[in-house]
Amino acid sequence: MERRTFVKNSALLTGAFLIPENSIFGSDSQQIINVGIIGCGNRGRGIIHLLNQLPDKFKVTAVCDNLDFRLGQAKKISEPKTRTYTDYQKLLNDKSVDAVVVALPLNLHYPVAVDVLNSGRHLYLEKTMTYNIEEALALVKLAKQKVNQVLQVGHQYRYSPLYYRVKDMIAKNQLGTISQIECRWDRNHDWRQPVPKASLERQINWRMYKAYSGGLVAELLSHQIDFINWAFDTHPQEIFATGGVDIFKDGRETFDNVQVTARYEGKHSMIGNFGATCGNSKDGFLFKIKGTLGTISLLTNDGVFYPEKKAIIKNEIVDGVTGASKIGWTKDGGIPILASPTEDGTLYAFNEFYTCIQTKKIPDSNVITGARTAISVHLANNALYDKKPMYWCDSYNLS
């Protein structure tokens, strides 16, 4: 069920992953998809802004949130005729809506996704796909029955030309034997949002509370966990974790300082280290993949390949990175993976969502890959909060 093809009609030129003319920067409109947004917090409003940039593909015709001030904020950035709802079931009764974006707290992903699929709509479901393993397995079962509907999960970075290129480099063995992965997503901030009244604390700052959230692992590190699962067609066999509320003693329940170590077996026997803190922003987003022939260092929209000395001697490995005879080196000895930074990954993701709706293709980030990552995240959180190793079970293997 997982589509393993790379972006078509693309080529490498002096290290650049060229975007086809019928991409997000061009027009291949067959029909406009009317979209309803359920959840108008920061992420939901960000998606509205993005869809407004794709008027030949999408039109936001309905928005829903049970907080009036958020609904008002969403209305301001939507077209005047956009309908507003405080009950998502009423949005699902709106016959003009073709597809739904769910950008709600994690504990609501599964029940609302079920209702969207049962309504017959296409679904873009924000990451992490589900709150727990049982929901992930159940959503896979349901989605398999909805053969004419697209379910895409919002792990948007894997849609970037940069990340496709890195996946391709791994497949072509340009990093050699890979043994270590280092990932961080750090900030120096309490991660809180202002609350107009105390009764809304848990509803607005839901990421702080275990009943609604998977914390830093689900909200941040899930992107990097997902990419490793996808790029290597793998999943962690065992997971160890530690952490705590070490910085902000403010009543939160989800940890503000976490470290997860995962063991992967397969073609590459790897150790993945995934960490996040709310107490230091020096590294910010850090993503390194280390092999015997070199290291890839990634940001969300840019990346550099650092060859090992023996890869420089074997010149064909280095040339293979850029696809050019003249190699462009950075000041610290790296080779840019692409000629220039990419756009916001969400833009590429929604371009793919449109294509999949039009052509009935399965998205790269689909219910199977989404479940694999959701299971990985839940095992990591179990290891983190229960303070014991967790292991992958055969019942989690999906196809």
UniProtKB/TrEMBL annotation:
Domain GFO/IDH/MocA-like oxidoreductase intervals: 165-296
Kindly give the Pfam families that the UniProt entry links to this protein: GFO_IDH_MocA, GFO_IDH_MocA_C3
Stored PANTHER family? BCDNA.GH03377, NADH-DEPENDENT DEHYDROGENASE-RELATED
Protein name as catalogued:
Predicted dehydrogenase
Q: Which GO terms describe its molecular function?
A: nucleotide binding
Domain of life of the organism encoding this protein:
Bacteria
Q: Where is the Gfo/Idh/MocA-like oxidoreductase N-terminal domain?
A: 33-155
Q: Which organism is it from?
A: Pedobacter xixiisoli
